[in-house]
Fold this sequence. Notes:
By secondary structure, the chain is α+β, with helices and mostly antiparallel strands. The protein has helices spanning 18-25, 28-31, 41-54, 106-121, 136-144, 173-185; strands at residues 2-4, 9-12, 62-69, 74-83, 90-97, 126-132, 148-159, 162-172.
Amino acid sequence: MLLSTARLQLREFEEDDWQAVQAYQNDLLYLRYTPWTYRTEGDARDFVQMFINWREERPRYRYQFAVILPESSTLIGNGGIRSTHAQPWESHIGYEFASTHWGHGYATEVARALLDFGFNELRLHRIYAQCVVENTASAHVLEKIGMRLEGHLRENGWMQERWWDTLVYGILASEWRAQQASDSTSI
């Protein structure tokens, strides 16, 4: 499966992708908002293999895409959309990028593509996302793509030897469609 945006390709993971993943997942800037403090080769291989295994699930509720710069075939991050068997009408999205590619609008582009895929291909009713309060750049991405702040969960996550607050954002299919119609009439 392949999704394309104006500047990026989102493709299924391949086994050799672990090296690029390990490189950016060990960057100190990236590590600020993660549950781990270092990633081994085995960690990165297992991470990538998990996504490869998801492709075989039937029915399929989880999709994780390697984000590629087409002109250089460079893997710069990943993004995904995941549901559960118990609630197949609702999914959550997430994304991560190498810090060298922050600030270029790639997260916004990928998050929009995930919403489009979720609402138009998977026929979801609701999509949500979470980010730690301190990750203001991620919160800004979610707001830019039309998601609404639905909640502030206090100290609901433990990582890196401390409690973290989490923001929850959501968008409904009807809101996404209205936003898309508005965007197409303003062009």
